[in-house]
Design goal:
The complex is a heterodimer of chains A (about 300) and B (about 220). Chain A is of the alpha/beta class and about 300 residues long. In chain A, about 35% of the residues lie in helices and about 30% in strands. Chain A has a six-stranded mixed β-sheet with strand order 5-6-7-3-8-9, sandwiched between helices. Chain A has a four-stranded antiparallel β-sheet with strand order 11-12-10-13, covered by helices on one side. The chains are: A alpha/beta (about 300), B mainly alpha (about 220).
Amino acid sequence: MNTIELEHCSKWYGRILGLSDVSWRVPGGIVGLLGPNGAGKSTLMKMLAGLISPSRGTLSVFGVSPFSDPGVRGRIGYAPEHDQTWDEMTVFDLVSRLAELAGVPRGRAQSSARDAIEQVGMTGAADRRVRGLSKGMRQRTKLATAIAHDPDLLILDEPLGGVDPVARIEIVARIRDLAARGKTICVSSHVLYEIEALTAQIAVIDRGRIVAEGDVAEIRRRLGHRPHRIKLACDRPRAAAAALATADHVARIELSADALIVETTDLDRCYDDIGAAIRATGTIVSSLTALDSDLGAVVDSLTRGGGS
Amino acid sequence: MTDAAAVFAIARLTAWRFVHGRLPWVGAIVAALPIAFAAALRGHASFAERSFEIEELLLVVLPAIAVAASITSELDDRAVTYLWSRPLARWTVMVGKLVVLAPFVVALVVASWIVSTAVGAGELASAASIGGLAAGALGATMTCAGLAIVAPRYGMVLAIVYMLCDGVVGEIPAHIQLISITHDAGELAGVTGSSPAIAAIGLVIVSTAWLAYGMRRIGRLEA
């Protein structure tokens, strides 16, 4: 049985369409929900957490509707995108009371909260009021509230939004730890490298529709007819460009003072030819980047209307 | 998680927030206003005429401040997502809050009446008047809880406006006045009429209907 199953789910907010005929299945592991702001990520996440119900279609988590069956929400940990919470509480108070509300017996809620706070690296700040926490600490606190009752499914809405690089590394490590312990994790972001750091399994959402899903590489294969772009940063871009210009797979070359971007229809041959060009011209290379292996290119390609 | 356990957990959370918040102080200040009025009119004939009406104004303000605001504030600031994503029926959130806040409202109204009567008239308030006000405060609290869910963003204002209208309806010399909580409280207190049993039925029907409506509607709200 899939952990998450959506069948032709749509959601209207009055006359605004938040989600449009989405069918999606998540068996387990970490899956990234990727899309620009306003694409429908949070709407989908709220549906999975049981906060809103689909206007049309069916949605099930562990086989039941999280909106109409409160019991299943005990197996779900949800960290919303927003920061609003009971700011007058300490981190420990907040996490332990929410654990209790998630069904952890009162006697065990405090130890569960301590464990969760430790897991997210907030032990030193457990007695601080939420009001005074930095963005990164708030994100980790939200993660602690989501995991304190040991749920089987974690729904994390933009968990890396606005956090500093150090906190981002720590949060990514915690999320990966949780996945390694068998949790299913659905994580959203509009920042591409955040998702890329967590998982290769993604669903790309735009204008309320899932426009692509699967492995990043698989999605790229589906975009195979599109030219790939490779950026070569080097000391002699003009010479390297001249060496590559005659290759039949090269569709376009963009030049700048210290780099060139090659657009090619055959990625493997292009890498071979770049290597040959570097050797032939004696160019010193500082970096070689396949631009469209970045999720940004995937999203851009798909949301421009060319997704299959 | 059983519904009873959920109500208990919400009540504990509400009690914690109540103790650490401003509501006790705000409530005490509002409840002190009739006492100040009583002190100003001490021994004056108009105190006896107006004291119960002044006390009834607490039924307009206190439940709206304490209950309607508490129920809707989390909806307004989205913290409710933490409650609604938990494995508990949403009506238990309303009931859990009422378990803590209703006694607070009733106690303040009753205490305010006892003290203002002692200050203004130099006598103890009658048991009937205390009972009538307590029943009215409880009814107003349940009504405001249900009303707040009608329009969560404006829950407190809506509750105050409703209770002001309730006072006007209570002045209409017809059976419709039985749907007025303030009128029913006066009847139960022996201040305005002679049919406390019918007033009690009216009070129970109105406040239970509003609470039931709120408990039903909250289950369909979306965060």
